[in-house]
Design a protein that fits this description.
Strand content: 15-25%
Number of domains: 1
Distance between the termini: 30 Å
Largest sheet: 6 strands, mixed
Radius of gyration: 17 Å
Structural class: alpha/beta
CATH architecture: 4-Layer Sandwich
Order of helices and strands: EHEHEHEEHEEHEHEEHEEEH
Low-confidence stretches: none
CATH superfamily: Metallo-dependent phosphatases
Helix content: 10-25%
């Protein structure tokens, strides 16, 4: 299975559509799917448009071909802490067009597993070893990022939630961060970069690739490329 992943779209519909234009053609392939890792709302001004696009893709291709996970910003919406849009000036929250997305959001899974990979919005409790699945809060809220080999867990983790510029310590880096061991982080801070990184996980070969309009490249550890 080839799993095309994006995360942290944050209401940037145009940027989401640009990323979709690179991967949507693959959804007709039997062994491909699109996996979205959460945080679809708050930031870019068209959160409702992003949710409508995801729901439309699920109706077109099926929710087994287009899977959306829950993020912490969706949890905030479900808890009634905010509407769909957030104004940057006052950090206040506004409803979008009045559409209620509660039912759809409440049914989003928190985690997806395939092959040798755990896909999740924020991360897992790595201190729990093989019992990591019991700590649900970590799936959407984990902070800060952890790096290195996860003891007691053979799978790799692909997550968003934290800007890769923060993880790498490089304010100009907004690509996919691989620590060379167990973690791939894909939140490229669309608010600043205006781009949404695309990771493709090939579960048949257990290899991971950066996908762009210009081609596909295997992802190397950050320290070996920078």
């Amino acid at each position: 299975m080839k799993i095309y992943c994006m995360s942290d779209i944050h209401g940037f519909l145009n940027e989401f559509d640009e990323a979709l234009s690179v991967v949507e053609e693959h959804l007709a392939e039997a062994d491909s799917m699109l996996l979205l890792l959460g945080d679809y709302i708050h930031g870019g001004g068209d959160s409702a448009g992003v949710l409508d696009r995801i729901i439309g893709l699920q109706k077109k291709y099926g929710d087994n071909k287009v899977v959306a996970l829950l993020g912490n910003h969706e949890e905030m919406y479900l808890r009634g802490e905010c509407g769909l849009e957030r104004t940057a000036s006052a950090y206040s929250y506004d409803d979008a067009d009045g559409t209620d997305y509660t039912d759809w959001l409440e049914n989003l899974p928190r985690i997806y597993q395939a092959g040798n990979t755990i896909f999740v919005h924020a991360g897992i409790n790595e201190d729990c070893g093989e019992d990591w699945e019991w700590d649900y809060d970590m799936f959407t809220e984990k902070y800060p990022a952890q790096l290195g080999e996860i003891k007691g867990v053979k799978e790799k983790v692909v997550a968003g939630h934290i800007w890769t510029s923060e993880i790498s310590g490089d304010p100009d880096f907004n690509g996919i961060y691989f620590d060379g061991a167990s973690h791939y982080y894909i939140d490229g801070n669309v608010i600043k970069s205006l781009e949404i990184p695309i990771l493709m996980a090939d579960t048949a070969t257990d290899r991971y690739y950066r996908v762009t309009e210009g081609g596909i490249w295997e992802i190397l550890p950050y320290d070996s490329e920078n």
